[in-house]
Structure formats: C-alpha cells, structure tokens
What we know:
There is one protein chain. By secondary structure, the protein is mainly α. The protein has eleven helices and no strands. Helices cover about 70% and strands about 0% of the residues. It is flat, with a radius of gyration of 22 Å. Keywords: Membrane, Transmembrane, Transmembrane helix.
Amino acid sequence: xxxxxxxxxxxxxxxxxxxxxxxxxxxxxxxxxxxxxxxxxxxxxxxxxxxxxxxxxxxxxxxxxxxxxxxxxxxxxxxxxxxxxxxxxxxxxxxxxxxxxxxxxxxxxxxxxxxxxxxxxxxxxxxxxxxxxxxxxxxxxxxxxxxxxxxxxxxxxxxxxxxxxxxxxxxxxxxxxxxxxxxxxxxxxxxxxxxxxxxxxxxxxxxxxxxxxxxxxxxxxxxxxxxxxxxxxxxxxxxxxxxxxxxxxxxxxxxxxxxxxxxxxxxxxxxxxxxxxxxxxxxxxxxxxxxxxxxxxxxxxxxxxxxxxxxxxxxxxxxxxxxxxxxxxxxx
Length: 332
C-alpha cells in the first residue's frame, strides 16, 4: 500500500521538508547564538547571507507543508476503498493508531508554519532584521513537531494492512461512543449554533475594530483561534447533519466527496486561512515596537485582519447556506 502514488508523494515531501527544517534549525541555532547586527565581522556577514538563503528556502518548503495537509486528507479519503468498513477518510485514519495523531500534528504545524511565514515576510521588510531572533526561535520550536509528524506519518502508511477491518464514520462520530469524536457529535445543536454565530461575530467585530483603531490585536488573534476551534466542533456537531440531511451522520470527512460538491475543501481552506491570518496579527504585535518596522507592520496587520475576517465570513455564508437550504428540518 505504501507504493500508492499519493502516499509516496506525501512521504517524499515530508522527508524533504524535514531535511530542510533540520538544516534551517541548525542555522537558526547559530544565528540565535552569534547574531549581532552591530558587528561588521566576517562571521556576521556570513550569517546575514545565510538568513537570506534560509528564508527563501523555508518560504517555499513551509508553503508546500501547508498544502500537504490537504493532500494527507485527500489520500486518506482516496485509499478508503482498500479497507473493509471504511466509507471515507474517517475509516482510513482509524485503520491504525497513527492516523489521527498525524492529522492533529499536521493541523498544528500548518498553523505554526503559516505564522512563521507571516513573521518572515515582516522581518524581510526591515533593514536591520528586527524579528530575526523571534523568527528562528519559532522555527526551532517547529522543527521537532515536523520531525515527529514525518515519523508518525511513515509509521501510519507503512503500517496499513488491507485486511484490517476498520470502523466507518457512522460509528466513529456517533454520540455515546466514549471518544472525542463522539463527544463532539453529542454537542447540542442549537447551543452550538448560537456559540458559533457569537464567536464569528466577536471575531469579525474585533477584526474591524482593529483595522479602524489599530488596537486590540491580541484580542483579535485570540478570538480568531477560538473561533477556529468552535467552527471545527460545529462542523461535527450540526453543520455535517444539515449537509448530509441525516440527523445521525456527523462525519466531517464525507463532505469532501463528489456527491456533496467537494464542499469540505473550501470550508477547511477558509478556516485554516482565517486562523493563520488572525494569529499572524497577534504574532506581529511586538514588531510594531521596532523602529524599522513601525510604519510597515500596521499595514501588514490590517491586511491580515481583513483576510481573516473575510475568511470567517465566507465560512459563515457556506455554513448558513448548508443549514438554511438543507432538506433536514427539526420540529420545535
């Protein structure tokens, strides 16, 4: 099974990303230790040339790492036909104990990678590399996550056995199964609707306030991340059942199928975009105190806040459409 083209692509991409991250991490460690922008030594000049090279390479590598999250979900969904009992990616990921941990690691590392790209973009705008130490400190924190993720991903794909009988999404995301997924499915529908609407409203209001007043950046960043978590829970709790028009079907993966218009892909894309852009606003707040970025960072933050608000509004429109125009109706 490991010879599946998509699996080979994922493994090769992850191996390349991990190798580049290790190289960049080692260079980042040297930069954190020896960096002195006021020094004119040959060693400092070499570090400055190195950071150009590393930033350019990592910008491409981490972008592909973010894309690999969707390739991982697509691959897990595509190989479902090889397992008895699997109806979608939910069953494939449950075929052994590594599938879901890899998915969670990928989501976390993709958000961190997006934040790193935001900081890197701002840092390259300043003539004195004002965010370079924060940038490489985040990189060093990100390296072990990606290495572990790569290792677990290899264990997941190499450990898949076609004769394994796995569970379908109907049992994995059914209330009362005693798992995290079943707990999400059991969340009450109406209170979750109210919570999601309130979370999106707070995020959009704080984002618009930030763009107008340039204050409350940390609040907006926190609101966008909380909204991301609530939106994922809402997908399992009630958006899924309106999408499938079936009150017992809470799977967040079946909406990636053709019969549902591949609606899951734009939903997950805008959620990830909203979370990364919103968190990026908070990550750049210290940059506003740097003289060389004082006139640059606010413009980047306004753009990020606008992108995040727009992404969550698109999510709200899609979710609202799925609920309002669903054939599933509940009587009071």
